[in-house]
Design a protein that fits this description.
heterodimer; A: about 270 residues; MetI-like fold; 12 helices; B: about 270 residues; mainly alpha; 11 helices
Chain lengths: ~270, ~270
């Protein structure tokens, strides 16, 4: 094989071109559509229309509340699990971690369907009907079920990196269990919390598969708006997408960038 | 608290969370062997749902579609992403940072924003929606993850080996192929696996970029549960069979690959 002027850098050209055409240009297209009206004139009408509609705004608040509740529950379940696993001296703890990741490899929609069937069963059992009465409860339950591994993994990887001698040092210096936790474990696991939170919060605000299948299409989240606008009004759809995009980048920037190591969905296990 | 009590509590907590993750799947697995279409009543062992699954041409077609698409998208993403990661790694600092930043956009962005942006761009550019656009859509979500799993391996690599190969008369292309690639191959493989799972799991990007009439497991199951036609009762229970088969295949895959790597380790001892 002979390449004219082949250097190693040449290899990144196809990827750079790919990113230009299918990541950068689509983002610019969204930006363009968000600030134009149906006649392609520059206007702020989409922006004004969206933010002056009270039903839209209340749905956004709902959507954020659902995502927040989901994220907090995931964190409350995942943190102890990651902590126990990371500090365990068990030889085969890798197997347990694998057990947490494994359901993630079943198709997402099939998993939501499994939860749906679980609630159907509960609805048919006497004395258990109340559990499947609320569409919001079912939606949050489904989201926690689906996104929990995304919270466990980054937490586990960051906690595994914490040097065990730090715990001993903390105990030697007279700190009790609670102080060690708040002054050593918690601050050092912050990067894991951050990437876990972003990986759960964002899908629970936008992935309408769960809310549609479990909430009987009664629970509307931001992602559903975009879907509905896609059929009718690209300009409004782009505006909503742009707002989401800004929220994503602000939160990423505020949480101090993204740690790519924690974000490979368990690929480095 | 005594140490034993604490250990018991920890085991119980982890066990409960695992139960939460596996209960819905196991429920489907048990009832997939039942003759009725009702979960909650077991009337005798039967393979009806499996027979229904394997005799429905439409269902078989969409399963084939899903796996073919995942394999194609993952293979192309792996080539593009590995070359991209290699090229980026040797680029100047600023160029590298720029490509890396753009490459992170599909990773942190809400999937629906990526999907909408791509769909509008394809339609506005006159490309319409075809298998090509669907493939590109899947590559946009998969390739950055391939890059993310290859880059760390490049950082760990011993760079002097490449230079030694050049000194010994290898062309740069040959040195990359024979010396660099073998060192990063674990990252390439895990990137490929990750790309396959991401593509198999995807619902949102598929819906926005697919040609009309094209169904994957995700879109098919979603539509069948949401719309509910006369056909549905049969189809829904054949999904239990499908979930069970996928689950068993994944468990077997994990067990076999772990056993293989354990044997390899023992052999190297």
């Amino acid at each position: 094989m002979k390449f004219p002027h082949f250097t190693r850098k040449t290899l990144c050209i196809p990827y750079a071109v790919f990113l230009l055409f299918f990541v950068i240009i689509p983002m610019l297209v969204i930006l363009f559509y968000a600030f134009t009206d149906r006649n392609m004139n520059i206007s702020l009408s989409n922006f004004v229309r969206f933010f002056s509609d009270p039903t839209k705004l209340s749905t956004i608040v709902y959507s954020i509340v659902i995502a927040l509740i989901t994220t907090v529950i995931c964190l409350l379940i995942a943190y102890p699990v990651a902590y126990i696993l990371a500090r365990s001296k068990m030889k085969k703890k890798f197997v347990i971690l694998m057990l947490f990741v494994l359901p993630m490899w079943i198709n997402f929609v099939l998993r939501v369907n499994a939860i749906r069937e679980l609630f159907n069963l509960l609805a048919s059992l006497e004395g258990m009907e109340w559990l499947s009465a609320s569409n919001y409860f079912k939606t949050v339950f489904g989201m926690v079920y689906d996104f929990l591994p995304f919270m466990i993994l980054p937490l586990y990887t960051t906690m595994l990196k914490i040097d065990h001698s730090l715990y001993e040092a903390s105990a030697d210096l007279g700190a009790n269990g609670v102080t060690t936790f708040t002054r050593v474990t918690l601050p050092l696991s912050m990067p894991g919390i951050m990437s876990g939170v972003t990986m759960v919060f964002l899908p629970s605000m936008t992935n309408y598969v769960v809310s549609d299948m479990l909430g009987n299409a009664k629970v509307t989240i931001i992602g559903k708006f975009i879907y509905e606008y896609f059929g009718t009004d690209w300009h409004m759809g782009s505006m909503v997408a742009l707002v989401l995009l800004i929220v994503v980048f602000l939160s990423t920037w505020l949480s101090g960038g993204f740690s790519s190591e924690e974000n490979v969905r368990g690929a480095n296990l | 608290m005594s140490k034993i009590a604490k250990n018991c509590l920890q085991v119980a907590f982890v066990g409960l969370v695992l139960l939460f993750l596996y209960l819905p799947i196991l429920l489907l697995a048990v009832y997939s062997f039942d003759a009725t279409d009702m979960i909650g009543r077991f009337e005798g062992f039967s393979l009806t749902h499996y027979a229904a699954l394997f005799s429905d041409q439409k269902v078989l077609g969409m399963i084939g579609n899903t796996f073919l698409l995942a394999f194609l998208a993952a293979a192309l993403s792996t080539v593009l992403g590995t070359a991209g990661a290699l090229g980026m790694f040797y680029c100047k600092k600023r160029m590298k940072a720029a490509i890396h930043a753009v490459s992170q956009i599909p990773v942190i962005n809400a999937e629906i924003v990526t999907a909408l942006a791509l769909a509008i761009t394809f339609v506005a550019a006159g490309l319409g929606k075809s298998y090509f656009t669907l493939l590109i859509g899947h590559m946009v979500i998969c390739t950055p993850f391939v890059v993310l799993s290859v880059l760390p391996k490049l950082k760990q690599m011993d760079n002097s080996l490449y230079e030694a190969a050049l000194d010994l008369g290898a062309s740069p292309a040959k040195a990359l192929w024979k010396v660099v690639l073998p060192q990063i191959i674990p990252g390439v493989i895990s990137g490929f696996m990750l790309a396959v799972t991401l593509s198999l799991d995807d619902y949102i990007v598929t819906v926005y970029t697919r040609p009309t009439g094209f169904e994957t497991i995700s879109t098919y199951v979603f539509n069948a549960t949401m719309k509910g036609n006369a056909h549905t009762a049969v189809t829904l229970s054949s999904f239990w069979a499908l979930t069970t088969i996928i689950f068993v295949v994944i468990v077997l895959f994990v067990v076999i690959s772990n056993l293989a790597s354990m044997r390899k380790k023992e052999a190297s001892k």
